[in-house]
What we know:
The structure holds 2 protein chains of 2 kinds. Chain A is an alpha/beta fold. Helices cover 46% and strands 20% of the residues of chain A.
Amino acid sequence: MKSNIYKRILVATDGSKLSECTLKYAIEIARISGARLYAVYVVDTADFASIPMESDAGWETMYSVLRDEGKDATQKVEELAKKVGVEVEQVELEGHPSEEIVQFANKENMDIIILGTHGKSGLSSILMGSVAENVIRTSTKPILVVPAISKKDKSH
Amino acid sequence: MESTIYKNILIATDGSEHSENTIKYGVELAKLSGARLFAVYVVDTGAFASIPMDAEWEMMYSLLQDEGKKATERVEEMSNEYGVEVEQVLLDGQPAHEIIDFAEKNNISVIIMGTHGKSGLDRFLLGSVAERVIRSSDIPVFVVRMSDDDNDE
């Protein structure tokens, strides 16, 4: 059941409810191909770099909150994947999300990158999430883009 | 080995030799998932819409149709090597629109397409068809960057 094409799969997660749909598609490819799944969360340091802080302690707190969020997010992928017997490597990076994802994919020889088009705001049924857009534009890897909210999923 | 998530896979091909890599990813996914595979080529009638509807138009149209036939046959050849069955589909109209429309009507789980295509855009831009499909599709889109080594200086 091994695949020569799908061996290492990167799925980007931001821990949001919306990313669960993306995870479903990613875990399934890993399951049927026997690929190793890398669940990647990027602590977006640019996000709060510009926030003026009274002290380094404030910045540290912010940073550790995001790190915890990342840990939860990748943990969640592992739990979901485990249910269907897929092994997951949890990866936490920090920096500019799309850059980190593209770099990691190259460095670690990923065969495919899977990500959602939602931003954390979930605003993007019209606009593509900026992380997805930047990854698509800059990576040479095959990319599976999962739309934020599919029409089918909306009809619950 | 059947997948409940990948049931119907659409490979959009433009017949360029760079599509081969894209096709490989699609066929492999179909093989692994046991999904039904559709090979779709869209005769881009918009590209020659300005030509008056006469013999010349007819010729153009039939040329592109032949090309489309060849393109989807190539997918079939590659699929056969993998023991995967494929349905060849020839559409005409505006490519992104036709691809999405077909995908929605046929309950496609994922659309697979190349991102360089024939328009040969700047390497940092997506092929316009892929970009349009990603922006307007509610169905996951799997884009494969076509190798531009031989095409890009």
